Amino acid sequence: MSGRRRGPCPAAGGFSSSPGEPGKKKRLKREVRAEFSAALKEPALKEQVAASWARGEALEHEAVVLDPVPFCHCVIPNFIQNESFVEGLQKELLSLDFHEKCNDLYKFKQSDDLQKREEPHIAALRKILFDEFRIWLSDVAQVELEPTIDLSCAKYEYTDALLCHDDELEGRRIAFILYLVPPWDRSDGGTLDLFSTDDHFQPQQIIKTLVPLWNSLAFFEVSPVSFHQVAEVLSKDKCRLSVSGWFHGPSVARPPRHVEPPLPRSPHIPFDHEILYRWINPVYLEMDSQNQIQEEFEDRSEILLKDFLERDKFQLVCEALKKEELKWNSRGPPNKRSYDKAEEESLPAILKECMELFRSEAFFLLLSNFTGLKLHFLAPEEEEEEEKEEAAAGGDPSCCSQGESSQAETKRHNAAGEPGGNSENNGCKKGSSIPQCAGELRHWTKGCYTLVHDAQTTEFALDLLLFCGCEGWDVEWGGFTSYIAKDEDEELLTVNPENNCLALVYRDRDTLKFVKYINHRSLKQTATQAETTGFWDFCFVYYE
Fold first, then answer.
1. Which one of 63, 188, 331, 353 is at 20 to 30 Å from 315 when CA atoms are compared?
2. How far apart, in whole angstroms, are the C-alpha atoms of residue 417 and residue 276?
């Protein structure tokens, strides 16, 4: 999208004659003009900045600061010379209509595109950026930048944030942000955080933080390593107002996206139905309940089962989760996720047994009964299910429900949990896949999230979540799991954390999910429950 150049305007305060009325003069509206930092236009400084940029060397000058770490970026204080112009610009921007922007990656308010806005200060800023400053920047970065206008205004207020990303999009070469903020401190949040990267061009940790300052402009080259974020705004009173956009130029070759290994999958482990009776609320083990659950699940592809675990067992699990001896590892990289995962070797016996429950053969079979999915060889195929329905409709007394058949077969498990009959092929049809699962125990606290990302694989799967320690959790704090349609912002389903609630969601190849960023408001939980920080979930994915 390219902007059109306006025709030349008369000099400020000039006059012109009206057609057909010689000598009659009409006063034109005064044009607002502004200039960017005069010091930057000095040839010596411009050459110095260009040389430092090319060599990747640091440069400190009162008019510009360049730092090559973690990637080349510059900050220009007092970017626009005229202070009254900056104040007028701020006033015009705040009068615009702003729209709430919220998804997995961000939450803030944004204006419409500023490309065609006719307000005098906004139009003058556009001219500064995409005429004079673009030429200066092209010379400094040695990139032929196009006069393409890509400009908008953003307001970040309390708990707003933009999480880790690299800005890469076809044609983007230089990103910039002009800050129009009140006196700002690091404790107010809203900083521009820059990340280091590993050998796979994946972000690791924040190693540079830029605090927004009035009338300062930051810019950096968009590249495979330009990972950055806008930290959550923590001030309840201040507005982080900025104008940002990108300068476009010739596209450059990018390395292929790194594909990380998935969580390891495994088949069920040999535990028989006794583990179910020890752990699960008996109502969910009744065949009538299972049939009712399956009917609802097949209709909606999702279900929430409240008070799922036996109350005493759930209480023991919650107490164990708060023990200090548990070891947690931070899971990243931050452009995909940020939360803590338990080291299973460090888990006390009660938590290890809970993990075994979700991996057990008996539980695979129970999930088959809940969902109608083929997660165990005893679960009937879809064709068998249809035959049973037809036979039942015809009054065939020899045909039992899926639940009855599964229960009868489950009772034939031996003490080791192995089904009766030939255990080598487990009754699977030749060429059929073996049901598997992947799971982890996660801890969610302020600042945790997961993101939808380019390398995310999509396939048919059953998601399971069991929540702990989230009594009184408020959805405004984040932490909910959102399911969306691929390549769309349409939200299909939201699963909110709820104590001892088991969520089952079946997703297809066109469905993605993320856990919404947990914001500063969540600290209210600690104020009311001193020993609780965030919440936990047992997260498993099952594959037919």
1. 331
2. 12
